[in-house]
Amino acid sequence: MSDLLERLRERGWRLTAQRRVVAEVLDGDHVHYTADEVHARATERLPEISRATVYNTLGELVSLGEVLEVSTDGRAKRYDPNAHHDHQHLVCSRCGTIRDVHLHGDPLSALPEPERFGFQVSEVTVTYRGLCPTCAATS
Amino acid sequence: MSDLLERLRERGWRLTAQRRVVAEVLDGDHVHYTADEVHARATERLPEISRATVYNTLGELVSLGEVLEVSTDGRAKRYDPNAHHDHQHLVCSRCGTIRDVHLHGDPLSALPEPERFGFQVSEVTVTYRGLCPTCAATS
DNA sequence: TCCTACATTGGACATTGTCTAAGTCAAGAA
DNA sequence: TTCTTGACTTAGACAATGTCCAATGTAGGA
């Protein structure tokens, strides 16, 4: 993650305690947190950090391409720090947990030209849904 | 759409003016409306219909499998009446318009067994994103 | 026609996200 | 090192979307 901070500095980012903490939280686990979860965890290390700053910082990380924004259910967006590897998501339909997965082949090629309706298609996301082992065991 | 009302009656639905109007709105165009857009259009035909009823009815249609809920951007969910045909979505990243598209092959097969992490995978959604012809022309 | 369980209503409330004005501070300049 | 300045942060108001509840209304069976 120190690479991340380094990359950001090179792009003219002013390096503040708040931004460092947000970056560290994202780097922590392999879970994808919501903005509020990021805020809660950031607060543990830097109690006075504000919600607005967390939202700002996440938005900046997304537009710099360092983090991906994932909205799987129309509830809170989740933030995926694994932006530099091409991957898709596997979501538990009960608890909302997200895992990164890797696919065979390129999903873009599954969309035939006549089905593109003149769109300039630039991106494709594939989301698998099901019960995670934990939720399946307690159902 | 009268088939839809018929199917719902068979399942014990009480047929009210409000539910009929919501169903008609969904059946109208081939666009996928947000709940508030459905409410706005329903209000034109039945001015006293309440927001809560629109939300309730949409929720019921979704759990009956008659309508699909699509959340493409973490903003308002959109409702897709085309639930009985297997299809995926093409979304304009500028204006949010959604088109239904049909794919070659089964996207489920692109997820190798070791990438399933013990999940009982039951569903897959594929979303293509890009600029629609209109937005591309004015960019 | 009458009953009653189901449906609707309006408004309060919850969650998630955005905006702004005022204060603060990182980092380059001197 | 200290100064300066514009980028950054803050608190809280506000906006958008969605949920819940108690009171009221009504579809459809008896």
Automatic annotation (TrEMBL), chains A, B:
This is Fur family transcriptional regulator. InterPro entries: FUR, Fur_C, WH-like_DNA-bd_sf, WH_DNA-bd_sf. The keyword Transcription regulation applies. Keywords: DNA-binding, Repressor, Transcription, Transcription regulation, Zinc. It comes from Streptomyces catenulae. The keyword Chaperone does not apply. Belongs to the Fur family. Pfam families: FUR (PF01475).
